[in-house]
Every structure is written in C-alpha cells, then in structure tokens.
C-alpha cells in the first residue's frame, strides 16, 4: 500500500494538468464518468494516502488500496480504473478505489492530522493518543485520523528509532517518548519522501523487512501485531515493552 510520501510524489508529477480540461474519460470505476468530461481541474491535493482531484463543485478521491498504481502519459496493458485524457497528456489509475466527494473538499478533511501537511499539529496528535491509553502503539501509529499518511513501513522505522516495542500500550509509554514518536512520524515521512525521490528508500530501512537488529546484532522478531494485524519487525533487546 503506497504511504503518504508516495502519494505526495504523485501530486507533484501531475501538476502539469492543473488548470487543464478533461477532454476524454473512461475506465471501469463505478462513478458517473461523463460528469468529468469537459471539466477543468482546479487543483490536486493529498490527505495521507488519499489523492484528490478537485473540480469546481466536486472532488474525485483516489485510494490506491494495497496494489494500486498509476501511469502518467503512458498506459499499461490492463484496463484502467480511471483514464483522464487532456489536449496534451493523460493520467491512468489502476487497481484503486475511485469515489466522488460532493461540494467543498475542506468539509471532508482535517489537514492538521496529515504528517506531511503544512498544517500538521503534533499537539493534536498527542491529545488523541491520550484518549486511547489501552491501545497498542502499533495500532495507534497507523490510525489515519491521528497520523494520516503513516503506513506500515513508517510505523516500523519510527518505533525502531524511538526504541519502542510495537505492542507497548500507549498509556504506559513515558510522555517524553510519546513526544519523540509523534515528532518522528513527521520527520521520517519527509525523509521517506526525499529517499523515495532519489530511488534509494530501501537502503535506508533499519527495521522494515530486516532480519537482524544492527544495534544489538540480534535477530528481529517478525510477526503481525495489534488489532490491525500488520507485520512488525522489532528487537526485543533494545525496543522496550511498556505494559
């Protein structure tokens, strides 16, 4: 599943179509495709893992799910979920969710919970965490209403950086560690973005998909954790379990 930084890269790559009129639309998305024809794209936005194509009185929300992809000014052999053609160029989305949001886009999204947004509010994230003391931190970090854009890679890397066991309970983690974790969710997301653009993201992974802790020279534990049942990679020696 693409994480927030990857969706932000998509936004940057399609800026050439801002202000352009859709002259061709097709695909197997379950929306009224004709509604998009001859409409001008006002802007592109992102909220976490959501890619937003904004028109005058509605927005197309694209969610890449687990295996979504896109192509700009080229096509894949398979039929697109949504094809948008312009006088010079095209955008094609595959294996994704496509929905229509009516009216003003700001009515749908709280930009202050997006870790890559200029309006990101870490104090709000802390208040939200304080309301869920009995939840495992591995689930809390993946909560898109608190850390929009954070996915499983970022979760693993941030918890490793902060020396926190993924099955720790939020309310048992020291306040200074919570502050550090909140900050790192945004810091690491921007580093993810930078490395992704340089095509070197994987070489910077310290925990995700790794077999050994480089700090302790001990094997990582790899198992699904929390109610979300997402894969965690962690060291039981240096990542403290707070319960």
UniProtKB/TrEMBL annotation:
Keywords: DNA damage, DNA repair, DNA-binding, Endonuclease, Glycosidase, Hydrolase, Lyase, Metal-binding, Multifunctional enzyme, Nuclease, Zinc, Zinc-finger. The keyword Nuclease applies. CDD domains: BaFpgNei_N_2 (cd08974). InterPro entries: FPG_cat (IPR012319), FPG_N (IPR035937), H2TH_FPG (IPR015886), Ribosomal_uS13-like_H2TH (IPR010979), Znf_DNA_glyclase/AP_lyase (IPR000214). Residues 206-240 form the FPG-type domain. GO terms for molecular function: endonuclease activity. It catalyses: Hydrolysis of DNA containing ring-opened 7-methylguanine residues, releasing 2,6-diamino-4-hydroxy-5-(N-methyl)formamidopyrimidine. Gene3D superfamilies: 1.10.8.50, MutM-like, N-terminal (3.20.190.10). Residues 2-101 form the Formamidopyrimidine-DNA glycosylase catalytic domain. Belongs to the FPG family. This is Endonuclease. It comes from Flavobacterium ginsengiterrae.
